[in-house]
Amino acid sequence: MKLVKSLLLGTAAGIAAVAGAQAADLPSRKAAPVEYVRVCTAYGAGFFYIPGTDTCLRVGGRVRAEMGFAERWSRGGDGYGTRSYGRVQLDARTQTAFGTLRAFIRQDIYSRSAFIRGGSRDQFYGAVTGGDENTPAMDKAFIQFGPITAGKAQSFFDFYASDLGFKGVINSDHSPNLFAYTATFGGGFSATLSLEDPSMSVNRGAIGGLRAEGNSWPDVVASLRVDQGWGSAQLAGVIANRGTYNVVAGGGVIGNRASTDDTGWAIEGGVKLNLPMLAAGDYLWIQGTYADGALGYLGVGSTSMNLGRLVLGAVPDYVVNPVTGSLKSSSGYSVLAALRHYWTPTIRQELYAAYTALDVPATGAFLGDARKVNPKLLQLGTAVIWSPVAGLDLGVEVLYQRLETGRRVADAKLANFGLPQVGIKSEDAFQGRLRIQRDF
Fold it and tell me: How far, in Å, CA of 218 to CA of 240, rounded?
């Protein structure tokens, strides 16, 4: 019996040894290395390394819903307007021997309905008459490589750029296609020279009798800026090519200016002061702008100087004398101030005010009054915003506007309701808005 057990044990041991030897000859299968997402701290919160690269990426976005209210100015107009708005943005940065290489893209999509209209325009969203409107909009798409910025970016002329408020006040806030070079110095000082496409978002005013023939060169922007612990300050100027014109009157060209470029200009200065002595996160903006032949750099667009009853139409950069065919430029200035104050860490209030005055050459008469229209617009607004959790804003805003003119203009409300015209020289308007917004 013992002999049988010995033979069985010996046989089992031999089989195990042979099997082990054969297994050692088989190819081994090792698990592939796992590439974990790593946090990138070089450029602030939210960045991570794209697996397998040395590029840091931040994915962000915004969802916003809002509803505005105002007086109805016509039978066909609504007393409220709504808008939903979505944003997705990507920020990719790589450190190189020449400095940071950055690519940034921000895509917005708007859905608007139930327009609040005055005449043929929308008081809140600039939309046309009709049903729902879904509009994609490329807000930003640019590359930065060391001192170079190229693509669709915030104009280097802009400073305040509608930083506060839901509706906000008139100011220069646009993102053209541009090519810019920024030189940085010690102490937070920098200087930028930028070539910017004015056709992207800057109003280029023309009026009856003028036919634009196109631009010969882009707008040239130069700015000096300082950023330090107390805040920021900037001085910027622009030479704005407003293109060539044919002056048309009586059905024919009476003054051909196709060989001459009409050049406007604007200058802007502003300061942003941090006010931690009031509360953490408080700051104050103060800004002033003057423009001649380039009113778009005041923030004056095709409808921005209109109110519900007092509708001026498009304010021109140039006006033509229908007799001589000569051109005269429009000029104007604006001043604004805006304050953000935190009453508590989660409740803040924003206050803003602006005054814009234009000198527009006379273009005709209404009710026998041939004086210049020269609009002047006062805007006062405030918003109270509650942020119960990080990234979520719930707020309400009220905006008051008063528009005055140097001569009587048509009363759009009387026209909309089919009543006899008497003309008006001033108009007051209130607007309200509710908003909820989530940033991530």
Answer: 7
Beta-bridge partner residues of 181: 148, 193
For 117-161, the pLDDT digits (tens) are: 433 344 444 333 445 566 788 899 999 999 999 999 999 999 999
Mean pLDDT of the chain: 80
Task: State in Å, rounded, how far the first CA of the chain is from the last one.
Answer: 80
Instruction: Please give the Cα distance from 412 to 291 (Å, whole number).
Output: 28
- What is the CATH number that goes with domain 147-439? 2.40.160
What does the pLDDT read at residue 198? 81
pLDDT band at 283 (very low <50, low <70, confident <90, very high): very high
Contact 313, 205 (CB under 8 A): no
- Determine contact, residues 251/288, Cβ cutoff 8 Å: no
Residue 346, CA distances (Å) to 285, 341, 392, 396 in order: 21, 11, 10, 15
Is the separation of the CB atoms in 215 and 242 below 8 Å? yes
Within 10 angstroms of residue 97's Cβ, the number of other Cβ atoms is 5
Query: Could you give phi then psi for residue 409, rounded to 5 degrees?
Result: -130, 170
Beta bridge partners, 303, equal none
CA distance 141 to 177: 9
SS3 44: coil
Give the whole-angstrom CA distance, residue 402 versus residue 398: 14
Where are the chain's structural domains? 147-439
User: How far apart (Å, rounded) are the C-alpha atoms in residues 321 and 417?
Assistant: 34
pLDDT tens-digit map of 326-368: 677 889 999 999 999 999 999 999 999 999 999 988 766 555 5
Angstrom distance (rounded) from CA 316 to CA 296: 10
